[in-house]
Amino acid sequence: MNVERIKNAEIMLDNVGMTYDAADGKKVQALTSVTMDIQKGEFISLLGPSGCGKTTLLRIIADLLQPTSGKVLIGGETPKEARLKRKYGMVFQSAVLYDWRTVIKNIELPLEIIHEGKAERRERAVKMLDLVGLSEFANHYPRQLSGGMQQRVGIARALALQPEILLMDEPFSALDEFTREKLHIDLLKIWRKTNKTIIFVTHNISESVFLSDRVCVLSPHPGRLSAVIDIDLPRPRTMEIRDTPEFTALVAKVRNSFEGV
Amino acid sequence: MAAKVNKKRRSAVQSVVCPLIFGIALIAAWQTGLLHIVLNTDEYVLPYPTRIITIIGENSDKIMTNVWASVQVAVLGLIFGSLLGYLIAIFATVFPKYGSGGLTIVSAFNAIPIVALAPVIINWTKDVSSEAEVRSAVAKVIVVTVVSMASMSVNAYRGLTELPPFSDDLMKTYAAGRLTEFVKLRLPNSVPYIFTALRVSVPGSVISALVSEYFAEYITGVGRQIRENILIAQYSTAWAYIVTACIIGIVMYAVLMVIEAIVLKKRR
Amino acid sequence: MKAIRKIVNSKAFVTLVWIAVIIIIWEICAARVAEVKRTPENVLPHLSGVIDSLTSDRKINGSQTALGMVLENAGATLSRAAVGYVIGIAAGFILALLMSLSGIIEKIAFPYLMLIQLIPILGMAPIINAITGDIAVSRIVIAAILTFYPVAANTLAGFKAVRREAHELMYSYAANKLQLYTKTMIPACIPYFFTGLKISAPMAITASILVDTLQGGIGLGCLLSQSLKGAMTRYVFWDIVFFSAVIGILSFYIMGLIETLLCPYKRLEKKGR
After folding, report:
1. What structural domains does chain C harbor?
2. Which residues of A touch B4 (CB under 8 A)?
3. Which of A31, A244, B198, C87, CA to CA, is 20 to 30 A from A82?
4. Residues 6+ positions from C240 with CB-CB distance below 8 Å
5. Contact residues on chain C for B135, CB-CB shorter than 8 A
6. pLDDT of A213-231, one tens digit each?
7. Digit-coded pLDDT (tens) for C8-62
8. What CATH class has A3-87+165-256?
């Protein structure tokens, strides 16, 4: 393996493959030989229809799944080492907030896990809550919040541990279009302020184009990386950018890069 | 791949073998007297399993008579209670405001100890028949009815009202009448809930049948035999009836499971 | 006018109307019984008679009023029920915890947990009394066994209902097993745990009263048998029936109350996900 690659890439995927056993005893190729490098501070989308292996790939990076072939390195370490060093922040499709904790206590949860002091915990949580613009809801319970607000708390919680990599699994897919577009802008602001590496799984083409530096297009049967498309739209991106011909052209380019759908 | 399939099979085997080993170990401890040491009792109060089986074999005729008496009470009470409970649920669905309030009352009945209920009902049924056997049976059936009613009414009400989203709107777009809506939507929707209720009330009916026998005038039934035999210090016979009572509980539940599997087969 | 309508439409009012209806039916029946029976209190007394017997200061056994007697015996019965209840809760919770922690323990215990609910434990009360040899201990043991199953089964269901994402979240924090349980699993199963407590509270009381009836001495069930046999006024029987009904129902609501106090979030209306 190229020493130069290991040194430069934040996340390095080398021939990563995943084979499942189906119920009928047949092998199912969920993912075949994915090779790519992700640089520090990059915003990467994993885009594809269901069954393309995009979530599988995210879960392999997150150390939730072990690839059956190939190698993953996170800053030169295995995903497990990276997880134990708490390099990951996870955001799921639903916010997965704890009903019994107030918003601020939900954000403090990961800090309790690493035995952070009480004052330090509160200070960091307040800062994170401010970052996602929900300061006045600190003492609300999750079920008092709308879906969009809940997901913002989920992002604040993921950022609380100050991870290097934010892993987001279709985080906005359950929200309505208006809330989603608002959260796109907010997420990009947070990303600029915190300078995290973000891996963002989605099945929404325009969402991936709007947010990312690069869109990784995955195609199903078998799951594979069929294209990587650079999104050279200027930053900071605003709502209006969606109306430009450049944006439309990129969306079309991404759409045309799918194979066998 | 083969490894994973093997793992699944091994897990299935484990979930049969592990409890089996535990059960055999328990019976072995019982038969060898180890259990008696642990419980600080003797083989007179807690006879060996082989002895209990012998007693069951020797008294099978008498035991069957009592089983029949208890099962009749449990099943009749279960049927009446479930029907009544379902009717209450329908009433609560048709008149939601007063109906659901009534359900609160019915479920509160559930918290009344059977021990308090049984003597009251036995009092009330004194004039039903001149024969003690008949009026005792009626009283016992009523106790089981009351106990089974609550769980059915609460669960059936949920089944009749917790409909799939928009399904009632769909019925409205068909301009279906209330009766059609009831027959085509609410009734079928409530079927799984009926079984949820029965899973609670089947064991409940057996227990309340046995307990109501304690207070009944006429001496019959598995529960009463447990008590009568202990009063005359016939512990082995009492244990024979305890084992029988357990078998009744398990068999009735198994029958329910079979019926449920058949009825709900198409839904899965 | 608006205020009145609000009261009339409230749930509490509906419940009160139902209670009133039941009382009226009871009284009508009691009046009918009083006409045809020589000793109406044996079948259906007027509610006023029951209340009178509780409030009267007439000594019914030389030293105690009916109320004093019921309360003293209730103390013996309920304290044992409470001890058994607490032991059953602890045992049920611990078993659910062990089953959730270890696949082997779950496999061993699961079929037996199912079997326990099918076995008529109350029917076994006399034999448990014979084994323990002490009625106080039997009350505790039977109340504990009856409490055990609903608590264990519901708590286990609560552990299983924790969503996969919550597990993955804790995994991504590299949380240890103790943290997984104290921060996620146990708080998440609390509502399920309380479902178990609510089901088993009246059962523990029923069990304790039933065990009383098996033997002389002190206890509500014992008093109940004596009154039925005519050893004292029949009203004591009715006092116990009402008292145990009220206690049984109250125990259910008290558990619900404790739950809402412990879980303030449960009071909140759920908003969209």
Report:
1. 2-44 (no CATH), 75-265 (1.10.3720.10)
2. 21
3. A31
4. B116, C70, C220, C223, C224, C227
5. none
6. 999 999 888 888 989 999 9
7. 777 788 888 888 998 999 999 888 888 887 777 778 888 888 888 888 877 777 6
8. alpha beta
